[in-house]
Amino acid sequence: MIEAQGVKKSFGKHHILRGVDLIVETGETLVIIGGSGCGKSTFLKSVIGLIRPQEGSITVDGVDITRLSDEASIAQYRKNFGYLFQEGALFDSLTVWENVIFGLRYLADDIPSSRYRKIAKEKLALVGLKDVEDFMPSELSGGMKKRVALARAIAAEPSYILYDEPTTGLDPIMSDVISDLILDLQKKLKVTSIAVTHDMKSAYKIASRIAMLHEGRVLGVAHPEVIRVSTNPYIRQFVDGLSQGPIQMKLKDYEPEPEPR
Amino acid sequence: MIKHLIDLFDSLLGAIGGHVLEIIEGMGQFAFLIRSTVQWLLRARVEWGQVLRQMLFIGAQSMPVTTMTTFFTGMVLALQSGSSSKHFFNEPLFIGTVVSFSMVMELSPVMTSLVVSGRAGAAIAAELGTMKVTEQVDALYTLGTNPIRYLVIPRVLAFLFVLPVLIVVSDFSGVLGGWVVANAKFRISPNVYWHDIVDNMEIKHFFHGFLKTFVFAFIISFISCYKGISTRGGAQGVGKSTTEAVVYSMVCVLVTDYFVTAILVALGIT
Ligand SMILES: Nc1ncnc2c1ncn2[C@@H]1O[C@H](COP(=O)(O)OP(=O)(O)O)[C@@H](O)[C@H]1O
Ligand SMILES: [Mg+2]
User: Fold this and answer.
1) Which of A75, A82, A257 has its CB closest to that of B233?
2) B-chain residues near A71 (CB < 8 A)
3) N or C: which end of chain B has fewer CB within 10 A?
4) Element at A17 (helix H, strand E)
């Protein structure tokens, strides 16, 4: 179970998360929906300890990541997680199969390295890829990259998987393939996951429950069928993809990245 | 009017203060990087595969340039010293001595380090910077390791192993460059040139230059890695870190060189 309470995070003057409360039950896939730049990635990164919130707690199996300070116990905490990055984040100096087994060397130290290649093949098969082991990431298409990244995230058989926009930027068919994969993984591996997305079709398909994030808070959490017929004007507007409604997309919400220093 | 001046002064102070704070913050982070590197070096198994890969990369990439640079520096030294001693004493004297002392104690370590900063240092900053902005650095954390262990330590060790080798090669190529000019232009026999060197040079002179190389290796590798993994802001940020890595490395090498020399002189290694 993942339990987030009052998570607050700001970057400089920008208050991104303003008190997120969220519970993810063991074995479920919680989907977080919300507009671009509303802090979905920031929340996921807080869960795995890549970002440290200023306030609040995030407790997983009784361990509060926001209170861990030494690197060894944070590393121990992260061992339970697989993380799919929004852009894949494949290591571009390594081949596909080296990418896939990368984490095994650190996370599962009882596997002899002679078996790595075979394991990579198996994991790639799990995401519907074959004969790509020796490609470099730069030689793959967007959808293939995402699937390799997915294979890498699940390679060490984590009990929690965090997906950051697993279907964004893919064609509709590939999106559906990835959604099926996520469903499959949930059934086969019995993982607990959080998936961040703004692809509603995928959200309905994979979600046990859907939470909507808006202006740094969770507007509501509900079963996908409830969300589908929700009358909450915020949720309605987002789900139906309307420009008119209570959610005002101010231009300043799309401020460019802060200037590098 | 006065109010305007005060405002101006205020914003000026603010700007300077901001910069000072930024510099202090940067130095703090840099010190933190060095500390974590030492900690992880003691705590975790070193990735020797990565060290080897980096050694080959740094060595292969830099050797042609450093060798050529110091060869020509040796030639220039021979030309300068030969023609001035010819001017004062009517014959070219001690060219071998001048070339070998200048090269081995000073020019070969410094010039090689400057070239390597521009070559391997820039490459490291650009590579790690790109990894940072494409979240590959974050991915390392999620896969059970971290950038210190997987990226920084192998590069720092590779530098500590490779730079001394590069500099010894440069010592030889500089002396060889001097010999070519001494022989071709001033008709000095190889025998005389060689004796000018070995009659005067002692092992401590070699160590004077050689010991410096470890300090330079440390400076270049840490600055390049630091600039790389602290990159922010996309492709533009990567360009900025790369330039800064090279500039800071070069300036630090030159400034530190004075202090290291002073220490070596105080210790009598000169
Ligand atoms: N490291 C950072 N430094 C400064 N601002 C950041 C940082 N990371 C994210 N932000 C800002 O926080 C906001 C939310 O980002 P993010 O969580 O990536 O949104 P999304 O919901 O699209 O995933 C954005 O406006 C972004 O500019
Ligand atoms: Mg995001």
Assistant:
1) A257
2) 36, 146
3) N
4) strand A14-24
Using the predicted structure, report yes or no on whether residue B263 has a pLDDT greater than 90. yes
Domain residue extents for chain B: 1-43, 47-266
Q: Which residue from B minimizes the CA distance to A105?
A: B144
Q: Which residues of B touch A87 (CB under 8 A)?
A: 134-135
- pLDDT tens digits, B209-234: 999 999 999 999 999 999 999 999 99
- Region of A244 (left: φ > 0; alpha: ψ -120 to 50; beta: rest) is beta
ipTM: 0.90
Burial label, B185 (beta-carbon count in 10 A; 0-12, 13-18, 19+): middle
Report CB contact under 8 Å: A261, B136: no
Q: What's the half-sphere exposure (Cβ side, CA atoms, 13 Å) at A255?
A: 10
**Do the beta carbons of residue B195 and residue B260 sit within 8 Å?**
no
Q: Which pTM value belongs to this model?
A: 0.89
Beta strands per DSSP E along A114-191 = 160-164
Is the per-residue pLDDT at B140 higher than 60? yes
Measured from the CA of A51, which atom of ligand 1 is nearest? 1
User: From CA A51, how far away is CA A58, in angstroms rounded?
Assistant: 12
Nearest CA to ligand 1 atom 6: A11
Name the residue among A30, A14, A33 with its Cα closest to residue A22.
Answer: A30
pLDDT at residue A128 in the model: 85
